[in-house]
Every structure is written in structure tokens, then in C-alpha cells.
Amino acid sequence: MRRLRFWIATALLLASAASVAQSQPNIVLLVADDLGYADVGFRGSDIDTPALDRLAREGRVLNRFYTAPICSPTRAALMTGRDPMRLGVAYNVLLPWDNGGIHPRERFMSESFQAAGYQTAMIGKWHLGHAQQQFTPLGRGFDEFYGHLHTEVGYYPPFSIAGGKDFQHNGVSIDHEGYETFLLAEHAAEWIRQRDKQRPFFIYLPFLAPHENLEAPDDLIEKYQGLKDQRDSPRSPSGGTGLLSKVASGSSKRALYAAVVDAMDQAIGKVLDTLDKEGLTDNTIVVFFSDNGATRMVGRGGGDNAPFRGGKAETYEGGIRVVSMVRWPGQVAAGSETDNMLTVMDLFPTLAAAAKVPTGNELELDGDNMLPAWLRDDVPPRDKTVFFGSEIPTYGNFNFAAITEHWKLVQWVEQDPVSTTVRHELFNLTNDPGEYNNLAQKYPDKVQKMARQILEWRALHPINGTRARLAAPPGWRAPKDWARYPRQDAELQNEPRSSVAPNRTSELILDRRLGKRGRLIYNCQPSRIIGGLCLNELIQ
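Above: the chain sequence. Below: its structure as C-alpha cells.
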């Protein structure tokens, strides 16, 4: 009898635990790479995207969703809920010869969900660090990693970067054959089917598509053969596609780009179908967005950011306002949309709030919980300025943006060996989302104020963060196998090294002397009252 009562109590406990697990929504994060704002069917695109159109139809389209203008900063902001400038990855992407990553003090969203009992999987392109184990997915809260540490590994084998093999499953190189986009979707679907059904799950699925260099299956290339390039040339310093692209490269890449996007949509459709078949759709939050706008440089790219100006690597709207939608049946109104200003930094606190998962962060988040903007449309205006920046492709040439709810300042900084040129453009995004009318001369006080904010924001950057180092260090050689490249935690010192300063006092002095050039001390918040010293460090 006692044993019977024990088994009954155990069964009730397990049933209760399963009930709690099922009450927490599953999370599926789908990220495209360089997708144009206009390149989805529900916006009238000539590219077939039935899966993305389904998400828009069954969820809420986020019309004003912002990311960084380049890859690694967006992914860092997504995972940490923090400003990439603080993290040291605002200016450029992490290149194969970079040794850094995201500081271990920064808590990743995946770590918080894992700690709350979620099963976690990262399937796709990482691009947030590869030199040390602590910078890789398996060191940042993911139980499962299937994919690539780098970008531009190609859509077909051998999936390599800088000559080194870069396709792995949980730290071991693999030789899977096929089209990369479809391989990722197949693995994600299988992982969902094989999951522990008593626990919720968190999947991060960042595609390589439609990043260059473009490749697609033959049937899709044939499907879009003859597709006319009807895009307008954008008004931006980097030039554009359309006619300019044809002159520069001899032909438009629009048709091949369309094939790559179509393939990605098919892959997303496979994941959505798997959720349906497993009976998970109603209790799963699906978020989709592109990591930045489509490439619009002369001779490159096939995407369309209409109706916005500019593209990838630029802080015009075409580079940072991206396609995005969220689906959560029964919670987010189907077929709805919002014009509230949302950013990639908001996703961590928003998803944590939706799932009732503690973020557990040591450092203050820069993103906001925007769950009310998903569930209803009565969100008060954002009361703080949001910043974006890029140094790609030329070292010392920056472009920045500061955005309030309605106003936007675009700043161009060109550094030559003996001079610096600064140019400002001010736009009212409510009246002029296409950024046609520069109001800088009409409102000089607003320009001055927002330019000062950009300068103060830039001062948060760690001085040895990523920069536009497009060339490898002299003599650098890539490994043959990137899965074996990261140094294991056990082989490293226990604490991160901060600087060459011999002690804490001299480090504080050196940090202060750097002024607006950036920070020596990580996560320094300069105090105006005490002469630029790190207020948070002094308090500690």
C-alpha cells in the first residue's frame, strides 16, 4: 500500500511538472541574413514566400523593427539584450582572425532559458566568437549546436572559411551533403521531433540565406530565370543595385537572390509544418527578422529595401529597419501589425517576460520588455535614444545614427591621417521615413544635441573591440578544422585579462585618460561629476 501511494504521488508530481512545462511557451527564433524589407510576399514582392506570409497572416507584423546595420552586432544585441557598443562589437563583424567574442560577464538569452529548464538548440550561423570555448554556442547556454561558427561558408560543401572546414555538430566536424539552408531546417525539424516532451524548448535558427555569395538549387534557379530587376537605385553613399549594379557587374543578381530567399522560405515552412504535426503551434512563440537590410553596394546584392534609403552597413532606414513578425496564437492578434519602435535588444527581455523566465543578468539590459507592443498597441513612446553604427567597409570611415521616437540624426565621420570630416543629416521619420528631406540646417540645436549623444555613446566602446580590419594580421594562417580551433576553458586562465595596467589604480587612471576614445575598463559608465572616472567601478 505504501509503495502504491508512493507511485501515485510520483505520477501526480510528474504530471504537475509536465503541466507547468507545457504552460511555458516554446520559443523559435528565425533569423535571415541580409533580407530586404520589400522581399516578402505580403509586401508585394515577386519572390514566393508562403511561409513568411503565413507568419504575417497568423501573427503581428512589426513594421518598425530595428537591428544593427551589420551581422555580429545584431546577433550580440539579440543574445544579450545589450547595446553592441558596450560589448565591443558595434563597428564590425567578428572576422576569422579575431580572437575576441562576447565577454563572459554578459548573460546570453539562451543561458537564461537553459537555467529555467528549457531545452536549447542553436542551428545555423553563429558569428559571435570562435577562438575560445566560452565564446561558442556550447559555452553560451546551448545544449545543441549544429552549424557554422563563421559566415560566408557557402551553401554547398565543403562549407569552409579562409580555407578551413566549418560545419560541426556539438564540437565535431561533420561531412553532411546537401544545400545548407535545407540541412539546417531538416536538423531543426528532427530535433523538435526528438525533444524531451516534458520540457519546453528554445531554438535559435539563424540562416546564412540570403547572404552572398549566392547559391541555390537548380530548380529554383530555373524558376526565377528571366526575373526582371525592377528595383530603383537607392540614394546612398555606397551606391546601389538596379542599373548601377548591372553596369558594375554585367548582370543583375536579382533572380539568383530570389531563388535563395525562396529556398529559405521553404526551410521555414518545414519548421512550421513540424510544429503543426507535433501539436506545438498554439504554445510556441515564433519570431522572425532579418539581421540587417539587404546589401546595396555597387555590383553586389539582389535585395530590395524599398521604400527605404540605403542598405546593409549603413544607418539609413534601409540598413537597420528590417522585416519582422511574431506569431503566438491566442496571445498575439492574427493579421495585425504595429508601428511601435522595437529593437533587436528588446527581444531578450520581451521573450523572458512572455515565458516568465528570469533574465538573471548581472549587467543592466539596454533593451525593454515590449511584450505590450506584441499583445496590444497602446504602448507609450520610447523615452530614450537608440543608437546604431558601422565602420564597414573602410577603416576609419564611420556612419552612425541616433533615433528618438520621431527624429533621426545620421552622422558620417571620415578619418584621414591628418583630418576628420563630419557630416550630419537630420530627418523626421514620422513625416519622411524615406529620408529625403535633410532638416539639419533648419534645426541646428537638435543636431548638436543628438551629435553629442552619439559622441557619449561611442565613448562606451572597449578600445580593443572589433574594427574594420578587413586584412588578416601579417602571417596569420587559418586552421584546417574550425571545430577544433576554440581553446578549451580548462586551458585558459580563470579570469579575463583587461589591460596592461599593473594594478587597479593605474587602470582607472589610464581609462580616464582615454576620454571619448573609448573604454579600457569593460562596461565603464563615465561620471561627468567626477571627471570621467568609471562611476560603477568606484561604487564597487
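The longest helix spans residues 254-277.
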